[in-house]
């Protein structure tokens, strides 16, 4: 099958620019290896090289023979796959004549599902293939102003997130007054990005005005993640552990 004219005429520089756009849209995924896996799966590329500022330098195209998601993809009708790469894999690995005769299709038929119900079933299976993150590692603080000591906090969040295969987040307090808290939340985040670009690039930073304390953060994250891991100083571990465990599972 021939490529579209726009794809065939696209230069290497244009391809990198296009891929950079997708990379930037994955700011919620950290560390960089998760972004790379996402792009590799979606677009069939490998060996993505990125500089310390998050700019893609180069990548290579992957032959379908190098990819292996397993036979599970054959249990999904190709019409329900949104990812172009998954569609290519389906075409290569699965017999089109047997597409309708799949485990999921038989289950949907037996349950007498309508088209919308079947679509939801197929989409949920594709989400299973994508293996979304279910763990978040976060911290909360005034950081007014940010100091070199806060760099260690950022590094610890990243370290724990890697160990837990979770998503690192930093929630910045909205508290502000002329004497003790001169900077706004947005200003603090801007300074953090300038002072610690390497760490800031790996952490999603939030300045939600509705968040006043750790319990507010737990409420916001509830339902989005299976596991919440909070990073705090050793002198506060006991207090926060008692507080969060006390209200774990309690309706807000």
TrEMBL record:
State what protein this is by name.
Cytidyltransferase-like domain-containing protein
Q: Which SUPFAM superfamilies match?
A: Nucleotidylyl transferase (SSF52374)
Name any one GO molecular function.
catalytic activity
Matching InterPro entries, A to Z?
Cyt_trans-like, Rossmann-like_a/b/a_fold
Organism this protein belongs to: marine metagenome
Pfam families linked: CTP_transf_like
Domain named Cytidyltransferase-like: which ranges? 140-240
Tell me where the signal peptide lies. Answer: none
């Amino acid at each position: 099958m021939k490529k579209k004219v726009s794809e065939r005429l696209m230069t290497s520089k244009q391809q990198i620019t296009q891929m950079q756009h997708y990379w930037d849209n994955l700011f919620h995924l950290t560390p960089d290896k998760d972004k790379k896996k996402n792009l590799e799966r979606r677009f069939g590329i490998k060996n993505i090289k990125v500089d310390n500022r998050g700019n893609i330098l180069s990548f290579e195209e992957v032959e379908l023979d190098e990819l292996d998601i397993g036979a599970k993809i054959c249990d999904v009708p190709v019409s329900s796959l949104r990812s172009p790469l998954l569609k290519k894999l389906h075409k290569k690995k699965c017999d089109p004549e047997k597409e309708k005769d799949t485990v999921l299709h038989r289950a949907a038929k037996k349950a007498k599902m309508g088209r919308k119900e079947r679509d939801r079933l197929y989409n949920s299976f594709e989400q299973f293939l994508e293996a979304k993150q279910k763990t978040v590692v976060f911290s909360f603080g005034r950081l007014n102003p940010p100091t070199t000591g806060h760099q260690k906090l950022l590094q610890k969040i990243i370290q724990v997130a890697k160990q837990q295969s979770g998503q690192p987040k930093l929630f910045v307090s909205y508290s502000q007054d002329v004497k003790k808290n001169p900077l706004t939340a947005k200003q603090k985040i801007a300074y953090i990005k300038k002072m610690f670009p390497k760490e800031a690039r790996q952490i999603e930073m939030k300045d939600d005005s509705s968040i006043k304390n750790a319990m507010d953060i737990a409420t916001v994250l509830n339902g989005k993640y299976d596991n919440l891991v909070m990073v705090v100083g050793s002198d506060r571990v006991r207090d926060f552990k008692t507080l969060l465990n006390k209200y774990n599972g309690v309706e807000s």
